[in-house]
Structures are given as structure tokens and as C-alpha cells.
Amino acid sequence: MEALGRDALGGVKSAVKELVDEFLILFANILFAVSLFAVWGVFTLIGVIVDQNKGADFYWQNYSPVLARIVLRLHMDNIYHSPAYIGIIGLILISMTVATFRRVIPARLPALRPVKIDKIPLHATVQVEGDEADVRERVQKFFAQRGWQIRKREFGGEEWSFVDKHNWARRGVLVAHIGFVIIAAGTTIYWASGYSGQFTVLSGTTGTIPQTGATIALKQFGYQIQPVATKSGIVYQPIDYVSRAVVTGKDGVPHDAVIRVNQPYDVDGVKVYQATYGFGITFALTKDGKPIAGPPATPLKEGEAFDIPGTTRAIQYTSFVGTMDRRTGQASSDPRPNDPGVVLEAFDGNTPLGQVLVPLGKPLDLGAGFALTPKQYTLYSGFQYRYDPGISLVLIGAIVLVLGLCISFYFTPARLYVVITGAARTWTVGIAATTVKGYDIFEDRFREIVEALRRSPQAS
Amino acid sequence: MLDPLKVAIDHNLVVVTLATYVVGTLVLIAYFLLRTPLLQRAGMVLACLACALQFIELGTRWNMTGVWPLTNLYGSLSLFSGLGVLIYIIFASKYDLWLIGGGVLGISAIAFGYATTWNEGYMPAVPALQSYWIKVHVPIVVSSYASFMVAFVVSCLYLFKAYGERRYSATTGVLRASAAGGANVSMSVAMPTAGTLESVVARTETPNVTAAATAGDPFAVWLAGLPSLARLDMLTYRIIAIGLVLLSIGIITGAMWANEAWGAYWQWDPKETAALLSWIIYAGFMHLHTRNAWRGERSAWISILGFVSIMFCYLGVNIWISGLHSYKM
Lengths: 460, 329
Description:
- The complex is a heterodimer of chains A (460) and B (329).
- With 460 residues, chain A is an alpha+beta fold.
- Chain A folds into four domains: 2-104, no CATH class; 117-166 and 412-455, TATA-Binding Protein (2-Layer Sandwich), CATH 3.30.310; 193-278 and 384-401, no CATH class; 281-379, no CATH class.
- In chain A, 33% of the residues lie in helices and 37% in strands.
- In chain A, the strands form five sheets. In chain A, strands 4, 9, 10, 11, 18 and 19 form a six-stranded antiparallel beta sheet that branches.
- In chain A, strand 10 and strand 11 (290-292) form a beta hairpin.
- Chain A is elongated, with a radius of gyration of 37 Å.
- Helix content of chain B is 72%, strand content 0%.
- Chain B contains twelve helices and no strands.
- Chain B has helices at 4-34, 37-65, 73-95, 101-116, 134-166, 173-179, 197-203, 207-214, 218-224, 229-261, 270-288, 297-320.
- At the A-B interface, helix 2, strand 1, strand 6, strand 7 and strand 10 of A face helix 10 and helix 11 of B.
């Protein structure tokens, strides 16, 4: 019974070992790795083409029903964070690791063994005159002077020289793979302990970063938009977005801060970025000419709504129009608030009833005695914040990756096999070359080496 | 107010540069077909002139407006055209590859011609582009695109030659093995290398082409005068090796800029991911190129696919797909 158990255990062990071996062989295979690359590429392409992170309604409205169903069912609406996408990156990392240990690290110098010179596509012979010892010394000197590393071995009474260059570059792929791993570690650190978010702050109010409690009191948001004459007409080109604020971090000391696009502010290691801006609108609601409660006292931002008291209706502030064309009553292309208005949308429950553009300060008759007046606008600033403890590691990984690519691509580790045969004062130097990148890439260089050897004063 | 004289100079430079590209293309195509030294010399001069004019035009714009000229598609495509020709000149000088000039200058002419349709005049940069990173990131990325463009032309020539040789070859296996430096190819330096017909024919890998050329078949003689398939494959590899490193650095500098401007080094923006897609394709090329069986014709097709993805990333995403690279209020 015990023997039976041992046999069964041995069988299981052998099956597991076989399975592990097959797994390692598969994951170390370059074609398998490239197949994973191909799948990764297809997933990435889907993410480029299909709009990402939109609500289900967006796809039903903008895509054909069949396509919308496919997108939503297969989670293509957020493909970069889907299990399939993360899984394929995981498989690539596994494949890279296995390949590194099974192929890249073991790919050391080829063994020092004699070869059949004329069977190697890159081969040549050079005639040299002189004593044997002298010829050998001169050939050795020729390669040594050109930075080649020479090792000699004797096989069956015949001396062979194994001449190598750029051996260190055999580690280029390893360096590149390590770069990838460092990048993956850096992003993992962010996932584990970093955070980010967005918030908006109206001019004259204060916003808080929830994770640290740091506050940003917005003194003023400013923008600069310049009309520029182009071939297509006047274009209103944004030139500057800037928030002037007082930032208070953990130390409790307020600091004046100027936050611009491309100029983030650092508070307690959290970077705060100028992300967006907009126009908050204060509304006044009346019923039969008398002010009533309804819209909030604080300005509404684009997309926000309020209910009309005692009805099933709601009004949404959809967008801000900087300059209205008084002749047409429509929005003009000038985004600067010269003659501002707001686009409002009415809803009955969830049913949209229609949109209207209302000049600022003019009442809008809502019916049943209700009138709504957009009173004034207040600029607000949108901030993005991010704490990323892994970012330095990602940068280091990126640099290591590029270094690895440069080593792999621009240096060709080559091995020359050199054997000297002959008698008396006439000797033949046989040379053959192999590289880790095939023969074609070394052909010109090999030709130069042989020509130089042939031209050298020692050779005949 | 811009100096009207400088504006006029800029306009004229645009016209002259475009004309030089077009004439250069025609001359180098003629050289490709006829292989006369005079056409080669004229093509070399025109390529250098077009490249110089392109950079002078961009410099004039910068000098005139004080705004870095690469803030829009016009400037970017202008740089693409100029850099494409510059990379071609460097590789052609080093590897005697002037034959591909018609293709490179042709694409540069089309790109610059298309760029002029996006030339809206002289505009200041939007806030997101007001960063020193634009002087680092954009030239690096565009130079990677230009490298891939040159690699694309070499790959097309490879396929042209491979299919041409196929006319004379009984099996396609010979071609692949030849390009891969297979054992049936002798590269012994002991063979003649002078510019005689015999030695040129000897460098082609398809014995049937050699035989046809020796028998006087004019197309075979013409075909044999093209660089060998192995050499074209090696050149594609070398150019992509430049382009891939530049693209990697371009993606990294772009991420560093994004981190400063948008608060995250990677946001899965369509432009970022399209660049990643191209990177994946070219990384796949480099991996597969380590295998003999994948060098040559298959590699050439992957290089072409890679350039299609580059064009999608460069033009398709910017023009058709909305994202952070079309900064909106």
C-alpha cells in the first residue's frame, strides 16, 4: 500500500515536472512572446479606436446596436483596465522573465571549440610569410591592437585563437528586460500606495485634497485668449490658464502659489496641476415675481441641475457661452465673456424637454408663473492632483530599458575563429566569423578586417 | 505685426522647397531606373538642397514669430519631410543606398504638400504646448517616424526585388534562406569585388537571376544591380534600430511631459496608445529578426505594417480621433 502511494506520488511529481518543463519551453519561446505582443497590439488598437470610459448610453447612441452590444459585453469600453488586457501584460512579463533566465542569461560566450572554417559563411584566408612563432605573434598583435580579446587553445596539436569583441553587449537584452521589470515595479508601487483625483474650486473659495488635508484657496483664476487671424478666419487661441492660490500643507503654513499648465505645484509630495476651468453661474428663481428657493445659493457648474419646487421639472446648466451674437441670438465663436449667456436644458423627470440660450441677467419664463434668471458668473479652476511614489522607479526603468535597447541594437558581439596552418615560411591564416545577429550584419566589418590583415605589412 | 518681407520669404521658401522635393523625386526615380552617375549626382544635390531648404523654412518661421515652429501639424510634417531626407542622406552616404531616394523624397514631397493644407498662418502656442519639452519630445518622435519612413522604403525595395527575383526562381525558399544568411550563401571575401558585371551578379543570391543576367536578360541585369536582399534586410534592421530607440525615447519624454502638464505620465490617451502599438510592432520586428526564418521577406512585411501603424499614430489619431493631443477648453 505504501509502495503504491510512493509510486502514485512519483507519478504526480513526474507529471508536474513535465508540465513545468513544457511551460518553461513555451514561455521562453520568442515566437510565443511575439504572439503575446500581437495580442497586446490588437487590444491596444481596439482601445485606440473604441471610445474609452464612456457611459453605456454613449455607445448605444453613437455606435450601431450590434457594435455597442459587442463593446459593452466584451468590456471594450474600458479595455486597458480589463482582466484580459492586464492578463496579457502579465503573460508578457512572465514570458520575459522565463526567457531571461532560460535564454538570455545562459547565452554566454560560445564554447572554445574548433570549427570548419569554410563551412561558416563569413570566412577568408590570408597568406603570411615568416617564422611560425613570428607569424602567430604578428596575427595576435593585429587583433589585440584593434581591441579584440584573444584566447588560445590547442586541439590535436593545432593552435586555435578565439577572438572576441563586445562580449559585454551580450547582456543588452538582459538590461532591457530588467528595465521593463523596474517600470512594472514602479507602476505597481503607484497602484499599491499612490493616489490621484480632481476637484474644482470657485474663485474665493477653498478646496481640499482629501488624502492629505492640504487646502487650496483660490484667490483668482485667470485666462488669456487671443484672437488670431488665420487663413480660415479668426481663431480664438488660448494663451494662458493660471490659478493664483494660497496652498496650506501639513506644516500649516500658507504659501502663495501660481499654478499653470505645465507648472504644477508640489504640496507635501503631492503634485497639483492646472487641469480645467469653467464658469459657475448663480441663478435666481421667482414665482409670480417673488423670489423663491430652488437653485442653490452657490454657483452651479456646467452639467449641474436643480429642481423647480412643487413640480416634476428640473433645469440643468449645460454650458457657458462667452459671447452671444445679438443679431441671431446664437453663440458666437468668441469664447471670451464679452456678452455672456448660458445654455439651459429643461427636464420633466428624466425626459429632456429642450434647450435654450439665455443671456446673463435676462429672466427666462418657465411657465406657471416661474421665471429663472442667470445672474452672474464666477470663474472656477479645476485641479488634478497626484501622489506617485513609484515615478522615480518608472523613470529609472525607462532609462535602463533604452540603455538595454542601445546595447542590443548598436553593438554586435562577434567571435572570430582563427587558425594558422602551413610550413616553413609560408603560412595561411584562416578566419571565420560568427555573431549573435547573423552574418549579413557583420559582412562589411569582416571584409574590412580581412582587408586590413591582408594589407598589413606582415602579410604577403 | 509680422515683417511682410519675412512672410514673403517664408512663402517663397515653401514653394521652392516643395518644387525641390518634386524635382528630386523625379531625378532619383530616373536614377533608380537608369543608374547613370549623372542622375545620381543630381539627385544627391537635390536631396541635400531640399533638406536644407526645409530646415531653413522652419528656421525662418521660428525667427519671424518667435514661436517654436513645431506646435502644429504643418510644422511637424515639415520636420518629418526634412528629417526623412536627412536620414536618407546619412544612410545613403554610409551604405551607398542612393537608389531609394525616389521613394523617400516622394513621400517627403507628399507629406510636405499635405502639410501646406494645414498651414493656417502664424499662431501662438496653446498653454499645453508652452513647455521646453516641445523642443525635446517632438523632434525625437518625428525623427523616429522619419526613420521608419526610410525603413519602409527599403522594405518596399526588398519586396520589389524579392518578387522580381521570384520570376527567375523556382522556389521561394531559396530567397528566405539567402536573406537570412543561410548556409548556401558564400560571403567569402576571396571572391572578386570590383564593379564588373560578374562580381555584381555574384552578389545576388538567386542563381537563376545570375544565369539570366549572364545570358543578357535586361531585367535580370537591372535587378542584379540593386543591393542584395541580405543587404536590404540588414539596412532595414539598422534603420529600425535607430527608429525604435528614438521612438522609445520619444514615448518616455512624452510621458515626462504629460506628467508635468496633465498630472500623469500615462493616461491611455489615443495618441499614447497608438504610439505604444507602433512600439509593440517594431519590438516584435526586432525579436523576430533574431530568427533566421523571420528575416527577409517576413521582416519586410512587418516593417511595412509598422509604418502603417506609424501613419495611423501620426495622422489618423490627430485628425480623426479626439484626445489629449487635441487640447480643448
